[in-house]
Amino acid sequence: PSLKGFFDTIGHVNMQNTTIFIILLTLLLFVSTRRRRGAIIPFSIATTGFAVMLFELILIFGFQIFYGYVFYEIGILITLFMSGMAVGSLLVIRLADNIKTGLSLIKVVELVIIAFPFALITFFQLFDYLSALSALLARVIMYKLLFLSGLFAGIEFPLANKVLLAGNENKRQENGAIGRTVGSLYGADLI
Length: 191
Prior knowledge:
Layout: H1 4-11, H2 15-32, H3 37-67, H4 74-94, H5 102-133, H6 135-164, H7 169-174, H8 177-190
């Protein structure tokens, strides 16, 4: 009840203008920080966090719409998402020494995240056909999409840390750069 005025105000916001503003802000940020990777990486973490949460919600709501219930399996759905995050993080941590250009890999992950909604749209459009073909197949694909959406965030966070912490080991420990880097990335993810 106390937030009614706030939500009424948000309900009158023009989404087209808001979207244009966000796109222009993103382009401005990209152009102004092109030479400074330290400024653009927290922004990519923030957008990845937003996108991945949106993917998770879309898939959970899609599950609710197609199957008519979600509470029976919500634990499984969230576990799949979180497992994807854990596997993505472990992959990057295990392969960190072999990753030479972390920034290039972050760009690839960002491109995959941009393309992922098209996979979701295709899946939802083909859901009836897949369900008629095999109910188990449609469910397994939905589970895999949840896992993949978590995998993207799991891959990107440790990569961003690696890129921002690249440099002299002694300098990182003396200046508290590790805590500052992890804190700024986590803060960007929470925004």
